[in-house]
Amino acid sequence: MEKPIVSVIMPVYCGEKYICQAVDSVFAQEVELELIVVDDASPDRTSQVLEPYRKRQDFVYIRNERNMGAAASRNKGVQKAKGRYVAYLDADDWWAEGKLKHQLRVMESTEAVMCSTGRELMNADGSSTGKVIPVKERVTYRELLKHNSINCSSVLMRRETALEFPMCYDKSHEDYITWLKVLQKYSFCAGINEPYLKCRLSEGGKSRNKLKSAKMTFQVYRYMGYGILRSCVFFVSYAFHGIRKYF
Hints:
Layout: E1 6-12, H1 19-27, E2 33-39, H2 46-49, E3 59-63, H3 70-80, E4 85-88, E5 94-95, H4 99-110, E6 114-122, E7 128-133, E8 138-140, H5 141-146, E9 156-158, H6 159-164, H7 174-186, E10 188-200, H8 210-223, H9 228-246
Parallel strand pairs: 1-2, 1-4, 2-3, 6-10
Antiparallel strand pairs: 4-9, 5-10, 6-7, 6-9, 8-10
Helix pairs in contact: 8-9
């Protein structure tokens, strides 16, 4: 296989039920890519259901010896990546066709270091909730503090930037912290306001437990160095946007 343009990083833990749909949506993208699945020591049949893909030259399977969490698993995938860009996709989400090609065009025209897309919220069974969450054409650091409009599974990023800002602090929203750090330095994230990401609201997801997610978001502001008062101001904005997003 020629050197890929995009390396897709897919962490998975107990993903036997949904991961094949995610994998198939990656290989339906019309760009030169590789898919790196990082199995976070899943005790279920994740490894077995991925067996049919193992002979593909553009498929890489890595299994952690112990459970390390999503952040460390994504970082491991980035380290192994050969592409000029990396894209993230959770094993229970999937993409519409044309996502990566559109993002590559936008990143080249805007010279952005990262790009996100809109997303459609899906029920656990894969049916649509009817809710589409938009994204602005340019997301700045100040806007991102008010609410996290960048979903991890929608992101395409330069690999060098992903290496510069590895994900950390898995007890919070590790992706949100990373986006904030990136935009502190690189000023904006390009956005494509089309729901290329199909985001499954699984029962065990962080976003499903609203109270837990709220606490983790407050921890993000504290982690970024903001005091209690400023963190509370940002949190109020987060709560307002969260109500609009899901209701």
